[in-house]
Every structure is written in structure tokens, then in C-alpha cells.
């Protein structure tokens, strides 16, 4: 399993195991693709951009992880609450990865906006993770 894949698995497990977030997005609300027909709130793993960060003695990778919090037909307050839970759960978290070690995962930015195509609001949440 690659470090990026292990990181994604750990992120999904961490988010899926939180009662407060699950209450906001419901079952099946964490996924790695958008489902156009779904009207409810969700967290979608949009992208993991991985780059080599190896040194002369250790292998390592930097991962920019982009997630989207979708409000469904809810407003800005709904998407901000979901994004807040995602940040609370992942920023500086101690995640266990299969086949790799997580050095750090830190929040970089969150941008919330109205998205007419999705008939609701979306928050783009970006984390920087380092694995070895």
C-alpha cells in the first residue's frame, strides 16, 4: 500500500469514527468522489498530491490533501460546521498508517463559498501531511 493510499484510509477511518461529524453528514457521507444525485451533506476526498521528500538517509513524501465539505442544500453555517469538524479531527492528528509512518498532518487553509452547480455551499479544506 502506498503512503498516499494508507493516508487516505486513515483519514476516512478517523472522520468516519466521529459521532458529531457522522450526525451532520449521515451514513455514506465520507467518500472519494461526488455523487451528483445525493442532496445531503458530505465530505469528499478530492485530491492527494504527493511529492518525494526523501533525504540521503530516509525516504519520505509530502502530501497535499484536499477535501471538500458539501452542505447539500444547507447554507454557509452548515458547511462551516462540517469543515470545522474535519479540521478538529485531522489537524495535528496522530493517525496510524499501514506501511508508513505519519510525521505530521497540519491544516493549511479552508475556503468556503456558494456553489450554484451543487445547489449549496462548499468548503475546500487543505492539509499538508508528511510521511516516511
Question: How would you describe this structure in keywords?
Answer:
single chain, 132 residues, alpha+beta, STM4215-like, 5-stranded mixed β-sheet, 3 helices, elongated
Would you mind describing this structure in some detail?
The protein has 132 residues and is α+β, with helices and mostly antiparallel strands. The chain has a single domain, classed as STM4215-like (2-Layer Sandwich), CATH 3.30.2000.30. 27% of the residues lie in helices and 37% in strands. The chain is built from 3 helices and 5 strands, in the order ααβββαββ. The chain has helices at 3-16, 19-25, 76-90; strands at residues 30-31, 42-52, 61-70, 102-115, 120-131. Strands 1-2-3-5-4 form a 5-stranded mixed sheet. Helix 2 (19-25) runs antiparallel to helix 3. The longest helix is centred in the middle third of the chain and has 15 residues, at 76-90. The protein is elongated and about 50 Å long. The protein starts with a helix and ends with a strand. The relative contact order is 0.23.
Side by side, the strands of the main sheet go 1-2-3-5-4
Largest pleated sheet: 5 strands, mixed
- The residue fraction in helices comes out at 25-40%
Structural class: alpha+beta
Name of the CATH first level: Alpha Beta
Number of helices: 3
Query: What CATH architecture would you give?
Result: 2-Layer Sandwich
Radius of gyration, CA atoms, in whole angstroms: 15 Å
Brief overview:
With 132 residues, the protein is α+β, with helices and mostly antiparallel strands. The chain has a single domain (3-108, 124-131), classed as STM4215-like, CATH 3.30.2000.30. Helices cover 27% and strands 37% of the residues.
